[in-house]
Amino acid sequence: MADAGPETLFGRVAVAAGYLTEAQVQQLLAAQEKARSEGDASTIGELAQAQGLMTPKQVQRTLLVQQFSEMRDEDKRFG
User: Fewer CB under 10 Å: which end of the chain, C or N?
Assistant: First the structure.
């Protein structure tokens, strides 16, 4: 994926959990970029849910894993 930002971390977590494919994540990233250019700040999770690709519970679980991963990475950086 393009970078290591929070949206691509969400995608990596969702793929690892089997909720999305890499192709779906790429499609969602493109849709998000288009939406943002039109002033819509939807997240990948919101877009995946709106498109019926993920359930609300799957999005919530993915966000929890993402948050844990970000906290773990921060702990590694700052000891």
Answer: C
Measured CA to CA, the distance from residue 1 to residue 57 in angstroms comes to: 24
The 10s digit of each residue's pLDDT in 12-24 is 999 999 999 999 9
pTM: 0.80
Q: Give how far Cα 75 sits from Cα of 67, 69, 71, Å.
A: 12, 10, 6
* Structure tokens, 24: 């779906």
Locate 56 and state its tokens.
């609300």
Tokens of 25: 């994540």
Instruction: Quote the CA–CA distance of 11 and 8 in Å, as a whole number.
Output: 5
